[in-house]
Specification:
heterodimer, A: about 525 residues, alpha+beta, 4-stranded antiparallel sheet, two-stranded antiparallel ribbon, about 5% strand, elongated, B: about 170 residues, alpha/beta, 5-stranded parallel sheet, 7 helices
């Protein structure tokens, strides 16, 4: 393992980030919150500078959580909250160990349901480590915590299995179903043959061919990975580009159209791209279930408008000199029995997913159908299963596990409490979340962007700090969709990197178009947040 | 750039070597060109490159060399771990059928280019051979997309999982 300077800095920064909360005590944050803060800071540094692969950081998060935060880890394994029954010394005067009284003269009562109740007390005297306190409404049989700074105060540890279970959370299974369908489609060339079939109606005029390429790319990347779709579409456009004159800017437009459409298309369905999984997973944990069809109704209008924006923009930035382009769209669908089973399973699954609200059967459950049927008939075998992008699932699972820790330890709430949210109205709040997501995702992984921002939105909701106008679903959608609008740099997303690597466009072309699309995209998303989504939810 | 992939050209006639190097210049930026006039020189060049952590991706080899001939050189390189994966192309006008057969059977010869070569043919062969090398030996295909067969590399990315969404 050889690290460059930035990665080394990230490694050191991450370790410092992990240690700092252990050395300092932040008021208002539980002991577990300090540990979670360390994990959070380390993960953020590792995800940003990538001294280790981003999926490795995700697994590290889960490991640290089961060790440091779970009820079965060494930290909380034998921990028990020290309580004693309050006993009167004189009338209305009680005596407790001094550790039971906080700095601001409060004591903590555990009520029969296990809830904590704070009581402000008056300290009469402190003798030999014991404090005599006075408060009229205290009663003799109360259970009082004798150590107010104990690590279990304000924190009930999760079972370690909760953290491990993120890898089998419903959204991960939904993704797995999508992965298996995509992998099988590639094996039987369904993706490429479908592309050729769908491109036929777009004729021979370059501008409509460009539109066709973008629509087909978007539709495929809504169900397959954006990266695999881009790689496949590159094989489709390379012969087209070789037929365009060398000095025709249309070449740039065609090459850029693919990653742009793939990034945008991923927004359309829950399985389109991993940030969607992070958003849906976090919302589900908050009790807001988002059905497959619901997500599509919310997100697809954004996709359509952004595709049209990108199309018009690419035509305007790179005006074509070519009048007519002949495409060779011949291809043969595999007519074997196994390929036939794939076509049926693919069609069935997609239809069942997008009609979830009609039949009511959960899409996460349906996701098992293609996995079972395709393996049942050996349409795919072990080789394909091994070839699935498992690390993407780890990446998402680590993000979900981080979210659990942030919320359960009270860290997320503690972080948002420091900001004066009342001074932002709803409009600015959404603009800030959206803009930060667009900017971050241009430099970081889209999934990491969503993972780092979603817990903030959730704690704004649960703490109620942001006020009554705050809507968790809409804020989460803004974050999730804006995390997919990263089109400025080749490092922004793998599809961008693939398009740039062809050598047929330069970073400046991508940056010019990408900045405009990001800006228009942000405006569009905010517009939907005010004029479309509120009427559906 | 220590782990870069090099192209080795083995040719003893200076004029022919010059012409080959000129025709291969387009690859220089991605695949540094190395030259040798004899089998012995070729071995020491290979030793130096691999010693610095570099790799040999392609060997373009003349057959008639002073001392050890090209086919025998390729056969001996096939037995070495550092050069086994290198793609091997014979560029010659003088190899007899039996030498060529020997090269195919024992050195896993990948291609035969007759002299005089055409520049387009040479480029095509080099691109395909290096694409094969990259597909078999490299993890990331992106650095080679602009110069090699991008369709084949893109298709490999579509089928494999070397690049995935993040």
């Amino acid at each position: 393992m050889k690290l460059n300077r930035l990665q080394t800095a990230g490694l050191i920064l991450g370790i410092i980030g992990f240690v700092i909360p252990l050395l300092f005590s932040f008021t208002g944050l539980s002991f577990a919150g300090h540990l979670a803060l360390g994990i959070f800071l380390m993960a953020a540094a590792f995800w940003m500078f990538e001294p280790i692969p981003i999926y490795s950081t995700s697994i590290l998060i889960i490991l640290l959580e089961v060790l440091l935060l779970s009820g079965q880890g060494p930290v909380f394994m034998d921990a028990e909250l020290p309580v004693q029954t309050l006993q009167p010394k004189e009338t209305n005067i009680y005596t407790l160990p001094t550790e039971a009284v906080t700095e601001d003269s409060q004591i903590l009562e555990v009520d029969p349901d296990g809830k904590l109740i704070l009581h402000k007390v008056e300290i009469r005297q402190i003798v030999d480590g014991r404090a005599d306190i006075k408060l009229p409404d205290l009663q003799g049989d109360m259970q009082i915590i004798t150590d107010a700074s104990h690590r279990l105060v304000g924190y009930g540890p999760n079972n370690y299995a909760d953290y491990l279970a993120t890898l089998a959370s419903p959204i991960i299974i939904l993704f797995l179903g999508g992965f298996v369908l995509a992998e099988t489609s590639v094996k039987y060339n369904l993706d490429r043959n479908l592309t050729r079939l769908l491109l036929r109606p777009f004729g021979a005029q370059p501008k409509y061919i460009l539109l066709g390429l973008m629509l087909v790319t978007a539709v495929l990347s809504a169900f397959m990975s954006n990266t695999a779709t881009t790689a496949m579409m590159m094989t489709v456009i390379l012969p087209i580009i070789s037929r365009i004159e060398r000095d025709d800017p249309l070449r740039f437009g065609v090459v850029l159209s693919i990653p742009f459409a793939a990034n945008i298309g991923g927004i359309a369905t829950p399985i389109g791209t991993p940030p969607n999984a992070v958003v849906i997973g976090a919302l589900t944990r908050q009790g807001t279930e988002v059905a497959f069809s619901e997500w599509m109704i919310l997100a697809t209008p954004v996709v359509i408008i952004m595709l049209l924006v990108a199309w018009v923009l690419l035509l305007a930035l790179f005006p074509t000199k070519t009048q007519k382009l002949e495409l060779n769209l011949s291809g043969f669908f595999d007519k074997s029995l196994k390929a036939g089973i794939l076509y049926i399973v693919f069609g069935f699954t997609v239809v069942a997913w997008i009609t979830e609200s009609l039949h009511g059967i959960n899409s996460n459950m349906i996701a098992l159908v293609p996995i079972v049927v395709l393996t049942f008939f050996s349409v795919i075998d072990k080789d394909e299963i091994r070839n699935l992008p498992w690390e993407v699932l780890w990446l998402v699972a680590g993000g979900l596990a981080l979210g659990i820790a942030l919320n359960n330890t009270g860290l997320a709430q503690w972080m948002v409490e420091g900001i004066e949210w009342g001074s932002f109205n709803r409009f600015w709040l959404l603009i800030i979340f959206g803009a930060v997501a667009v900017i971050m995702s241009n430099f970081l992984s889209n999934t990491v962007t969503a993972t780092l921002l979603i817990p903030l939105a959730i704690s704004l909701e649960t703490s109620g700090i942001a006020g009554a106008g705050f809507d968790l679903l809409i804020t989460s959608l803004v974050i999730g969709i804006c995390a997919s609008l990263a089109m400025v740099l080749p490092i922004s997303t793998p599809p961008n990197a693939i398009a740039l690597s062809s050598g047929m466009v330069e970073t400046k072309h991508m940056a010019k178009a990408g900045v405009i699309i990001g800006a228009i995209g942000l405006v569009m998303v905010i517009a939907y947040a005010f004029f479309y989504w509120p009427f559906l939810t | 750039m220590s782990s870069s992939i090099h192209i080795l050209i083995v040719e003893d006639e200076p004029d022919v070597l010059d012409a080959l190097v000129r025709d291969m210049e387009v690859f220089e930026e991605t695949f540094p060109l190395e030259v040798a006039a004899t089998a012995g020189e070729a071995r020491s060049v290979i030793k130096q490159i691999t010693g610095e952590g570099g790799k040999i991706g392609l060997i373009l080899c003349d057959h008639l060399l002073p001392g050890e001939n090209g086919v025998d050189l390729l056969i001996s390189l096939q037995d070495q771990a550092q050069t086994r994966n290198a793609r091997k192309v014979l560029v010659t006008g003088h190899a007899k059928l039996e030498d060529t057969v020997k090269a195919v059977n024992e050195a896993d010869l990948n291609h035969y280019i007759g002299k005089p070569w055409k520049k387009e043919e040479l480029h095509h062969v080099v691109i395909q051979q290096l694409t094969d090398y990259v597909l078999e030996n490299e993890k990331s295909f992106l650095p080679f997309m602009h110069i090699l067969d991008s369709s084949r590399l893109a298709d490999a990315m579509r089928k494999g999982s070397s690049v995935t969404d993040s």
